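=== RUN LOG ===
request id: a7f3
mode: sequence -> structure
chains: 1
length: 281
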Amino acid sequence: MLNMLFNIFKNPKSNISSIEVIPTWYVIWGTLNNLTENVLWQDDQFAIISALATEQFALSPTKQFVVVGDVWLTNRVELLQTLGVEPSGFLENNCQLIAQLWEKFGSECLKFLVGMFGLVVWDRQQQVLWLGRDRIGSRTLYYTTTSAIRAIAPKMRALTPYRSTELDLVALRDYLCCAFVPGERTLWQQVKEVRPGTVVEMPSEKVYTYWELEEEITSGDQLFDQRVVDLSMQIPPEYKLSGVEEKAVLKQAVADILPQAIIHRPKSGMMVPVQMGFRKY
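=== RESULT ===
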């Protein structure tokens, strides 16, 4: 089984057809060689590669910060008011808005953003690179972790020239068990994913969480209300387990609604979509 999976990745003549992915942009950071093709902006250590227009790129007013990314914001008006800018007079793109916010608030401005984004911010003065992703991960952002040149992109395909072909076996195990790879790992050893609600600082590779889901228990009716617990304890055992039949009460409750073939259908496993999932890469 594992040999077959390795062949899928390493054999270019595999009969599993690939999905054509056209990256919109990617970033190169580190020891740069001579770059000539589709360079949108470049300095000594940082380059933006894109064949598209400049709507995904911006410089802050002092030109200290370079911002590139896929950004869609729903609270532009509120953000502009935070900056003291008249919304009707601001015609720039969302990257330019974030560049101005970053210049005033730094990475703390990510807490203000409402929408979908995966962005890269290069601090030319401090020589620090920031990678940020929206709260629920609507936009993806990947980066390589080794060599003198790091690559960052919203599409993993764009990182192919900058990573090895070695698989991360832990991530592969997780994918085969869960049909997804949890955490920052990816199927490639030298590639990580920026997690939702976090920002990565480089070169230190420190990860900061600027937002996380919070669970709040209110004083209203709750599943674990003591009255619910007391009632469940009063239910006779034969209604919970009738002989060897589980969920007896539930099955009786839906007996007049669902066909008997559905109610008493045996449990079945769930197939892991291995082939379909691997085609993304």
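=== NOTES ===
The chain is about 25% helix and 25% strand.
The first strand starts at residue 26 and ends at 30.
=== END ===
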